[in-house]
Design goal:
The chain is α+β, with helices and mostly antiparallel strands and 176 residues long. It has one domain (12-167): Peptide Deformylase (Alpha-Beta Complex), CATH 3.90.45. 26% of the residues lie in helices and 25% in strands. The chain is built from three helices and seven strands; from the N terminus they run H-E-E-E-E-E-E-E-H-H. The protein has helices at 26-41, 128-141, 152-167; strands at 46-48, 58-61, 73-83, 87-92, 102-107, 109-115, 121-127. It has a five-stranded antiparallel beta sheet. A hairpin with a 5-residue loop joins strand 6 and strand 7 (121-127). It is globular and about 45 Å long. It starts with 25 loop residues before the first helix and ends in a 9-residue tail after the last helix. 34% of the residues are buried. Bound molecules: nickel (II) ion (NI).
Amino acid sequence: MAILPIITAPDSRLKQVSEPIADVTDEIRTLMDDMLETMYVAPGIGLAAPQVGVTKRVIVVDVAPEGEPAQPMKLVNPEVVEVAEDDVAYEEGCLSLPEQFAEVVRPAGATIRYLDENGVAQELKADGLLATCIQHEIDHLDGILFVDHVSALKRNMILRKLTKMKRTGQLETVPA
Ligand code: NI
């Protein structure tokens, strides 16, 4: 396994729409293992392939509370097929926007269809933190960041801070 460099915003590579996966190959399985390792080291609870420079529809998630056994999830071509009527607000962060947080309102629950690591179609009903996390990661596959869900004022403030962090060398930039 390998730890992959994570692209930080603002970066045009995070705004691209990722391609669906036709076959879940060994290459994709290795990518997902590397993404999980990268996420655990960061540490974070979710990571989408475009964050490591791969514009493919793959996400990994683990929302197990600290101190409890890991619950790694690997989702290929994930899509939201149904959402709960109720919304919920979570303070969200993102490995591509280090040290930045904002309250984001999303549906409190979601039904997700995806392919597992063996290419088998699965359906998952998620709520709580898992629902928020999976919706956040699927957004990445469509070039959407959590700051795109908040006011322009808040978004610009966060992006300006990140730009400054890059300029002053507090954030590494990943070469294209
Ligand atoms: Ni994110």
